[in-house]
Amino acid sequence: MQPDTDQVIAEIDALPDHSIYGRVSSVLGMLVEVGGVEKRLSVGGRCRVITRGGRVVPCEVVGFRAGKALLMPFGTLDDIGLGCRAEVAEGQPAITPTTGWLGRVVNALGEPIDGKGPLPQGPRPTPIRASPPPAHARRRVGGKIDLGVRAINTFLTCCKGQRMGIFAGSGVGKSVLMSMLAKYTAAQVSVIGLIGERGREVQEFLEADLGPEGLARSVVVVATSDEPPLMRRQAAYMTMAVAEFFRDEGQDVLCLMDSVTRFAMAQREIGLSAGEPPTTKGYPPTVFAELPRLLERAGPGTGEGTISGLFTVLVEGGDMEEPIADAVRGILDGHIVMERRIGERGRYPAINILRSVSRTMPGCNTEEQNLLVTRARRLMAAYADMEEMIRLGAYRRGSDSMVDEAIHFQPALENFLRQGKDERSDLGTGYSELAAILGMPAVGSAG
Description:
It is built from 13 helices and 19 strands. It starts with a helix and ends in a 9-residue tail after the last helix. Strands 8, 12, 13, 14, 15, 16, 17, 18 and 19 form a nine-stranded mixed beta sheet that branches. The chain has a six-stranded antiparallel β-barrel with strand order 1-2-5-4-3-6. The mean pLDDT is 90. By secondary structure, the chain is of the alpha/beta class. It has three domains: 18-89, Thrombin, subunit H; 99-360, Rossmann fold (3-Layer(aba) Sandwich); 368-438, Substrate Binding Domain Of Dnak, Chain:A, Domain 2.
């Protein structure tokens, strides 16, 4: 009982002995203007606005204008009017997670939304908006991490602490791929952020895609598309904060976030409301400043733990050069490109191996593994170059020995990349199967 008593005493000591408050002077769009306390506030600070009906609406300071603080709410603005009380919240927002959070679903504020009762509270606070570990103090990425998906394990091998982007349009199978990664990964803990997700798909993802097995070792953070932009942005920060807690406990964490694009859209709404100028495709400058601050939080820490991050990016019409996709690709350590045309011919996961890359892969593989993967890539590239002519019957066998080989191996390679959502494949099996297909000596999974 002693630790619980100490925690209660610490919480009581942290309670403020007085409150500082101002008054709402204007409400416009998503912004609430508050006067009287602007000198006690800073950007990123918190306030609690008391509505006329007595409801408490948490808000965040997003800027200042004409000597007044500009707030954005985490809830709706209903019942907020001129003169409503706005109390200043002391301290920085933080959560107190424990291993008891595994198997739970929380919202962007760290509150349980799965109907399983209150969350257990840990002994120490974890800041929601932490800075990335110092570059000079971080450990290097670790050894290979088994993600359980054959195409990624073999052709896009990831290391512990690596960050990868999953680039795809809507309806190409990102959610199913994420559920496979969460269920089959060798990482000890999965932290999944569903940012701006459709409300009806949340329960479907939890029950049908992730399932009890995957949920048992996961923490899921949810902010649906109908929630205010501040909640959607906060859900991304919350996802990283929970992952950082487990990393600091010395565990290998797989952090999955769907999607970074909706995080950027939420930040765009916030920035434009605060009066920022729109730049590329309507995105204000803070979007491109916040992306590295968020994504750099993943990776190796200063201790034994790691966060291996996979972040989905929505690309409209397969346009990999659109601003958010281009910015994210430059920050991360590789990218996985999913294409609709591959899914349309019935091969899932619909990963285009030739357009995807893992920047850490050559260094973590043995020479034999790199030779095996390079040969398979060359065969797939040769087939892709001549695919139209082959389908039209315009290619004559014997014209090019490499293309002849590619045609011979194409059905087996295509079948190798196909994997059902209930099928798991480990690192060693992937290399062995690929070596058998190409008639090359078997190689191990170590590297």
